[in-house]
């Protein structure tokens, strides 16, 4: 019923008729426009992972602020709060954010079984804070080439409502309807959890499509990317399976870079991230990174 309500509201919006929900949305036309927001999913126990990302592909301090002002690229680690609000874990994150200023806190209780809810909270929060063309979700044990990511996303600008990521399994369809067995076993358009990007709609105000997805389509599956994929499929959002978002670690990403086909993201499939990323991400960055100047030379 929620999906039917969302689709009905979507049709109303596309036909130009306002809905009570969308009428309440704030006009975002006066917001600064950004190219993309990159949310790095992290946990309380992952301080070393965050520091390893800061030491490799994520610009720091003035460089990160310059990236926002000149390139329109926002990067934040994304985390909720502990079950004991204001406890030692929350205070540690607050102290870390005061030092680096690169953490986005969500109104969400952290927990492995709550990743779908966290994904929903991230996209909803990011859309409310930044008016961007793309919203990206990536894990904190993945290596990313930011300029290559930007160039990849820019190629899809003229396509309406796209969701970009690596598909691990095909959709299971039965007589034109979703096979509920596949839903329960996690086979519905399962996207690799390393990195994926959602595009702001080109033909209707994105705040409206956001409202449909995150206020109406609330059913969540165990895997957060299955949940997100199912929400978008229900609203006719186009999925683009781009394999450059799921390269392997060296030698795979290194060979591709040498051939002039730099990877967007690199990780180990067996770990759904770089295995032992704290120890290995610097080596991946050295061998597969696009170079420190690439982002400043890139034109999106």
Question: Secondary structure elements and their pairing?
Answer:
Layout: H1 2-14, H2 20-24, E1 33-41, H3 47-54, H4 61-71, E2 73-81, H5 88-100, E3 103-109, H6 115-129, E4 131-139, E5 143-144, H7 146-154, E6 162-167, E7 173-174, E8 177-178, H8 180-185, E9 191-199, H9 206-216, H10 224-234, E10 238-241, H11 252-258, E11 265-266, H12 277-288, H13 294-297
Parallel strand pairs: 1-2, 1-4, 2-3, 6-10
Antiparallel strand pairs: 4-9, 5-11, 6-9, 7-8
Subcellular location: Golgi apparatus membrane
Keywords: Glycosyltransferase, Golgi apparatus, Manganese, Membrane, Signal-anchor, Transferase, Transmembrane, Transmembrane helix
Family: Belongs to the glycosyltransferase 31 family.
Notes on the protein architecture:
- By secondary structure, the chain is of the alpha/beta class.
- It has one domain: Spore Coat Polysaccharide Biosynthesis Protein SpsA, Chain A (Alpha-Beta Complex), CATH 3.90.550.
- It contains 13 helices and eleven strands.
- The chain has helices at 2-14, 20-24, 47-54, 61-71, 88-100, 115-129, 146-154, 180-185, 206-216, 224-234, 252-258, 277-288, 294-297; strands at 33-41, 73-81, 103-109, 131-139, 143-144, 162-167, 173-174, 177-178, 191-199, 238-241, 265-266.
- The protein has a seven-stranded mixed beta sheet, with helices on both faces. Strands 5-11 form a two-stranded antiparallel sheet. A two-stranded antiparallel ribbon has the order 7-8.
- Helix 3 packs parallel to helix 12, helix 6 packs antiparallel against helix 9 and helix 6 (115-129) packs across helix 10.
- Its cofactor is Mn(2+).
């Amino acid at each position: 019923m929620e999906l039917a309500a969302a689709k009905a509201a979507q049709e109303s919006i596309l036909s130009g008729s306002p809905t009570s929900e969308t009428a309440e949305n704030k006009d975002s036309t006066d917001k600064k426009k950004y190219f993309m927001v990159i949310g790095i999913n992290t946990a309380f126990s992952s301080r070393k992972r965050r520091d390893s990302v800061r030491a490799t592909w994520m610009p720091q301090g003035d460089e990160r602020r310059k990236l926002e002002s000149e390139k329109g690229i926002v990067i934040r680690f994304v985390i909720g709060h502990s079950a004991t609000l204001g406890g030692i874990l929350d205070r540690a994150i607050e102290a870390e954010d005061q030092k680096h200023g690169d953490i986005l806190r969500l109104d969400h209780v952290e927990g492995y079984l709550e990743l779908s809810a966290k994904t929903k909270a991230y996209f909803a929060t990011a859309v409310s804070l930044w008016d961007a063309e793309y919203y990206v979700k990536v894990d904190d044990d993945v290596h990313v080439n930011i300029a290559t990511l930007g160039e990849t996303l820019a190629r899809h600008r003229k396509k309406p409502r796209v969701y970009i990521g690596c598909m691990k399994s095909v959709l299971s369809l039965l007589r034109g309807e979703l096979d509920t067995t596949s839903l329960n076993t996690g086979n519905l358009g399962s996207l690799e959890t390393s990195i994926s990007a959602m595009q702001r709609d080109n033909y209707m105000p994105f705040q409206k499509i956001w409202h449909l997805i995150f206020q109406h389509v609330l059913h969540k599956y165990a895997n957060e990317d299955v949940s997100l994929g199912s929400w978008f499929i229900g609203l006719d959002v186009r999925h683009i399976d781009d394999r450059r978002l799921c390269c392997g670690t060296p030698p795979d990403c290194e060979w591709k870079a040498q051939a002039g086909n730099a990877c967007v993201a690199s990780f180990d499939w067996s770990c759904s991230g770089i295995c032992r990323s704290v120890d290995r991400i610097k080596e991946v960055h050295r061998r597969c990174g696009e170079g420190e100047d690439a982002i400043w030379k890139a034109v999106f």
